[in-house]
Amino acid sequence: MKRDNNLAQLKNGQTFDLLVIGGGATGCGVALDAAARGLKVALVEKNDFAEGTSSRSTKLVHGGVRYLEMAVKKLDRVQYNLVKDGLHERGLLLKNARHLSNRLALVTPLYKWIDVPYVFAGLKFYDVLSGKQNIGHSRLLSRKEALKRFPGLKAEGLKAGVLYYDGQFHDARMALSLALTAEEQGAVISNHVAVVAILKNDGKISGAELEDSLSGERWQIKARGVINATGPFVDNIRSMDNPQAAKILSASTGIHIILDKRFAPPDTGLMIPETEDGRVLFVLPWEDHAIVGTTDEPAEVTEHPLPLESEIEYLLRHVGRYFNLKVEKSDIKAVWSGLRPLVSDPKAADTAKLARDHVIEDSEDGLLTIAGGKWTTYRKMALDTVDHAIKVFQLSAPKPTCQTEQLPILGSANYNDQGEQELINTYNLAPDIAAYLNRTYGDQAAKVATLSLEGYAARLVDNHPVIEAEILYAARFELAERVIDVLARRTPLALLDTEASKLAATRVLEIMANELGWDQKRMDEETQWTTQRLNNAL
């Protein structure tokens, strides 16, 4: 099995140049950057790739309209640079992960004439900052045009709208694809492997003690440098290095709710420019559904955070104010919560005003921590981190400079955005399934479709394009080790439709158990774990 082979390489006693802890956006990006330079890299993730923060985003690739407003109002260069970097990286992500990302038009509705020039000028400035990476020009919309672009908008009092463009992507599969691309570049990667202790030699970090989260087996791994890229959990790893280390990170929580596709047109999103507490909300089309988010409240750092009823009511209340459709709690098909890592002063009261910038820290004993940041700038964060690691760990990289600016992510190199027709003709797939497989797997889609010919062509559940062949593919080639790995991250099913996921779980279990050789005890454990995740928090 693929994971067994990877674990064997982690256990064979070799010394790696870098051990990267954390399999989210940051860790996978760092592993890819380092491996692409020719360094010997190991990447371990305690749970699944992108199980935490990195699969709970609003699915936008953006510079940050809100950050730009704060930069202008307060003449804040940190926020300004964050937006500029974000817009540059947005363009690179859209090019390097073409199958997992796309340009998305967004409408900002305006109900006061005084807001029209202000918002329009701000979004035009947003265009200007993107420079050569500009993906579309903002323009004013008349009331009639705004309602045509987003028919669900509340018409009463609407004065005008502004149309602008940002990027959209599939975050969980992006993280997985980064990890698999790093593996192609020579990295050794594994999910469900936890760091339980930091090892030192003569007072300097020399590696870590690892534990297989599924079997409980422990072993030691040697590395010339250790990078802590664990998102909201960076302080946990820092405390392994130094129990007295002061915390450098706080967290906020944000939830998203999923509604039926009738709440958002397939090609246009909605940006609600200001809520009752001065935040920004989005209603976006995603995977033939509508995603609404997000909230932003101070939170404790915990795995699998629970969505709060107050957060759900907050989103429904604001959507109701901007929609001519009645939105009820019964319309929600799924809801999930995620933590945002914020490098901040713990005394700060308003987490919405904290910069999502990143910070690189070295400990006295040699632990390198990368904290903060956001999905859009994962590549820039990785570049800065690996540059720093080469210097402080005195590593000799065959390619000393970053190689990822033009490096296609797995699935993107030969992606054909019209490739679904070939899948239909060759594998006799339904049009919606073919389109879904093409945009999800890119130039690897035919490999998934081939497995459908082995008796795995059936849909997992009615009204969704996810098919059984994906389960087999995830277990064989994508390091899926738990049922929820498949339902929530290899496919988007659990993030879109909780009830459909419950119906599909039994068949996913059967396919994975057969492919991975699970005994009845493991199957029972998986059933219990999957039920817990789907009933509580993914």
From TrEMBL:
Entry GO CC: glycerol-3-phosphate dehydrogenase (FAD) complex
SUPFAM superfamilies given in the database record: FAD-linked reductases, C-terminal domain, FAD/NAD(P)-binding domain
The Alpha-glycerophosphate oxidase C-terminal domain, residue ranges: 402-522
EC class of the enzyme, as a word: oxidoreductase
Start and end residues of each FAD dependent oxidoreductase domain: 17-378
Alphabetic keyword roster: FAD, Flavoprotein, Oxidoreductase
Residue ranges the record marks as coiled coil: none
EC number(s) from the headed UniProt entry: 1.1.5.3
Catalytic activity reported: a quinone + sn-glycerol 3-phosphate = dihydroxyacetone phosphate + a quinol
GO molecular function: glycerol-3-phosphate dehydrogenase (quinone) activity
Taxonomy, superkingdom: Bacteria
Cofactor(s) in the UniProt record: FAD
Protein family per UniProt: Belongs to the FAD-dependent glycerol-3-phosphate dehydrogenase family.
Protein name (database record): Glycerol-3-phosphate dehydrogenase
